[in-house]
UniProtKB/TrEMBL annotation:
The keyword Zinc-finger does not apply. This is Ferredoxin--nitrite reductase. It comes from the Bacteria. Keywords: 4Fe-4S, Heme, Iron, Iron-sulfur, Metal-binding, Oxidoreductase. Pfam families: NIR_SIR (PF01077), NIR_SIR_ferr (PF03460). It comes from Peribacillus simplex. One of its GO terms (molecular function) is 4 iron, 4 sulfur cluster binding.
Length: 519
């Protein structure tokens, strides 16, 4: 058996079930079986095969035995065309019971799908040049980019081509479809760290360097960031990369992860654990074995952190064109709303929409002449481009509605708490709040000013109830600092009141314009 040779070649890797399964059958091969399973129904899928569907972007939603799937669609850099939005809205409407979620990695998620529907969904996606390959599983995930790439006053250079080159290199590439664990990349030249560099396994970040009497633009590289239950901040390597070498360097780093990353225990398999053990110097030494000599670091172009928020109407770098950054509360839309935005983008812009890792969206390329008319569109009463300070900065993971790992309900709860805070309390600064349903941190609790993490606890009547831990002070400014847990836990029913007290205390004692982070 092929995997027996693998084990003998890799004696340090324990025989764990997931690793054996991945060697017996490459994750991407699941695409070849979908038609068969669709024809024969959910019951025909062996239980051991369920997890393989992740490589096709499919997870079984809660409860697994009911046979409904969640599907994540890859959107490199978060940029979608008009045709793609119409196709996505159609899928959510026809198959996904009207649920359309923007994720914290600029991707889209559907729910309630049956295996019988999947072939048609994949065909519809393919017709508009989209894929679900690599959306989930131990593979290179959706690549985060600057949501303003190509139109951004605050970018060092346009990163779209580089990002697409890297995406194309890894797409359906079986050399990299059996990584030790999920693997997250970002590529951005936005000077405000719009891609959340420090929480990615590998990030390319804007920098300049004097080379042969010329100022070159390119990237600095960070490795080993990641959230989950053991959040770690990425470490910078002493490297400067010209844009044309990005694919080569991304491939080499991913090869190191594939070949040296830990595979013994799933919870210790992310790249961050290897980087933590090796340190950036040893990691760089290994990288240079693959790439040959590379220039050392130049000057970082990063100044501060915008957390992926682009609200308001702003001029683009192209004279006479504007973009509009819009709030989508906790990232959830209906198919009708997706179509409304698509038509708006077509009528006023070039049909394109940009999804943000803050679960919001941007309408780009609006001409000066159309701006006043656009501002009068009624959609902005529901989805404002100048949102209030709580709902505008609230992020939530999927939670117990659909997620098998969730301990509590999140999305609706986060939305209703934030909207109520906005109704009951005026504040002169936004407060970034993130809610997650378990320690896995998909909603990026660790970088929030106020992080809310769901748990279960016994209440006074000894009944098991939903509750939350509260964390404060997360940021990715200046290299980043994850938030810290406050003592105790709060019953979900009391969460709104406790948050209100906390924020009231902040409001009454803060200096003008002082943020919750600086408090
Ligand atoms: Fe599910 Fe936990 Fe991720 Fe939320 S953080 S989507 S509950 S795994």
């Amino acid at each position: 058996m092929v995997y027996e040779k693998f084990w003998s070649d890799n004696p340090l890797i324990a025989k764990n079930k997931t690793e054996i399964r991945k060697l017996e059958k490459d994750g991407l091969k699941i695409f070849e079986d979908i038609a068969h399973y669709a024809a024969n129904g959910f019951e025909s899928i062996p239980k051991e095969e369920w997890d393989m569907f992740k490589w096709a972007g499919l997870y079984l939603q809660r409860p697994k035995e009911a046979g409904y799937w969640m599907m994540r669609v890859v959107i490199p850099g978060g940029i979608v065309t008009y045709d793609q939005q119409i196709a996505l809205a159609g899928i959510a409407e026809d198959y996904g019971r009207g649920v359309y979620d923007i994720t914290t990695r600029q991707a889209i998620q559907f729910h309630w799908l049956t295996i019988e529907q999947v072939p048609d969904i994949l065909n519809r996606l393919e017709r508009v040049g989209m894929t679900t390959a690599g959306a989930c599983g131990d593979i290179t995930r959706n690549i985060i980019g600057n949501a303003l790439a190509g139109i951004d006053h605050d970018e060092l250079f346009d990163t779209r081509d580089v990002l697409y080159d890297v995406f194309e290199y890894f797409r359906l590439n079986e050399d990299y479809s059996n990584l030790p664990r999920k693997y997250k990349m970002s590529i951005s030249a936005n000077i405000h760290n719009a891609s959340n560099a420090e929480i990615n396994c590998l990030s390319f970040n804007p920098a300049t360097k004097e080379m042969e009497g010329k100022t070159e633009v390119g990237f600095h590289v960070k490795v080993g960031g990641g959230l989950s239950s053991v959040p770690m901040l990425a470490e910078e390597l002493d490297l400067f990369i010209l844009p044309e070498r990005t694919v080569e360097v991304a491939a080499a780093i991913t090869t190191i992860f594939r070949d040296f990353g830990y595979r013994e225990k799933r919870h210790r398999s992310r790249l961050k654990f290897l980087v933590a053990d090796w340190g950036p110097e040893q990691f760089l030494e290994k990288l240079l074995e693959y790439t040959g000599p590379l220039p050392k670091k130049g000057e970082s172009a990063v100044k501060g952190w915008n957390a992926g928020y682009f609200y308001g109407i702003h001029q683009q770098k192209q004279k006479g064109l504007h973009y509009v950054g819009v709030n989508i509360p906790v990232g959830r839309l209906t198919p009708a709303e997706v179509i409304e935005f698509a038509e708006l983008a077509k009528n006023y812009g070039n049909g394109e929409i940009r999804y943000c890792n803050s679960q919001n969206l941007i309408i780009p390329n609006v001409s000066e002449e159309k701006l006043e008319e656009l501002k009068r569109e009624s959609i902005f009463e529901r989805f404002p481009y100048q949102p209030k300070n709580f709902i505008g900065y609230s992020v939530s993971c999927t939670g117990i509605e659909y997620c098998n790992l969730a301990l509590v309900e999140t999305k609706n709860r986060m939305r209703s708490i934030s909207e109520r805070l906005d109704r009951e309390m005026a504040l002169d600064v936004p407060v970034r709040m993130h809610m997650v349903g378990c320690p896995n941190n998909c909603g990026q609790r660790a970088i929030a000013e106020i992080g809310l993490q769901g748990i279960k606890m016994k209440n006074q009547d000894k009944k098991m109830v939903e509750a939350f831990e509260i964390y404060v002070g997360g940021t990715l400014q200046e290299g980043g600092k994850y938030n810290e847990k406050l003592k105790g836990k709060v019953e979900a029913e009391q969460l709104y009141h406790v948050l209100k007290e906390l924020i009231l205390f902040f409001k009454q004692t803060k200096l003008p314009a002082e943020t919750f982070l600086d408090f």
